[in-house]
Design goal:
By secondary structure, this protein is α+β, with helices and mostly antiparallel strands. The protein is built from seven helices and eleven strands. α6 links the parallel β9 and β10.
């Protein structure tokens, strides 16, 4: 399930009818403070402020390609796959929700649960870092899926590599109880099967997904 809480960052918490570049100017991004997330069943968890700045800067950099700038996803691959490290940020309301997401087997060859490296190479089975824009939906070997286009030199082979968003049994929360971590994908952003609808509803098409390590 996705959990969520309000974000206490003034630059992000205000609503705006204009483009996000106007709502979150670069001077405020540079001054962003840690973003506390405090769901009832967990202690204070923070979205790394440096990662937040980088994601918002990417949103500004790729403004001509990213049509919808009201909501974004930020994946903190510094965290273990046992943690809810995909953060959904509603930029207008300042709310964050989060869920589990798997990384590629080529990024974690020893299957420790931690991403060790990124790759943009075909056949690497690794996760790629950088800014992605969500594209169309389709039904493939993993069922309902969504294509992603990489916008940076570190992930611009995403379409050729078929790096997509899809649901997977090995990304379900019960994997943590039995194995202490999620299974691994072939570089795709695999989420729990019961979370796929929420994932698609939040991002839709033409929005930013930013993946990196803090």
């Amino acid at each position: 399930m996705i959990s969520g809480a309000a974000v206490a960052v003034g630059a992000l918490a205000r609503s705006t009818a204009g483009p996000i570049a106007n709502a979150v100017p670069k001077r405020e991004i540079a001054a962003a403070m840690p973003v506390p997330i405090a769901p009832p069943d967990a202690g204070n968890i923070t979205l790394n402020p440096q990662l937040l700045r980088r994601a918002l800067a990417a949103l500004d950099e790729h403004a001509k390609i990213i049509r919808h700038r009201d909501r974004i996803a930020i994946v903190d691959f510094s965290a273990s796959s046992s943690e809810e490290r995909m953060h959904f940020l509603d930029v207008e309301s300042g709310r964050i929700s989060r869920l589990l997401v798997a990384h590629g087997s080529g990024s974690d060859p020893r299957h420790t649960g931690y991403l060790e490296r990124f790759s943009n190479a075909s056949g690497s089975n690794a996760s790629s870092e950088g800014a992605f824009v969500t594209r169309d939906y389709y039904v493939g070997k993993h069922g309902r899926s969504q294509r992603l286009a990489g916008l940076d030199p570190t992930n611009d082979h995403a379409m050729d590599r078929a790096i997509v968003i899809h649901g997977a049994w090995y990304a379900n929360a019960d994997m943590i109880a039995s194995h202490g971590k999620l299974g691994r994908s072939q570089g795709c952003f695999a989420v729990g099967e019961s979370c796929l609808d929420a994932m698609f509803d939040h991002l839709g098409t033409g929005r930013l997904l930013y993946a990196a390590r803090a």
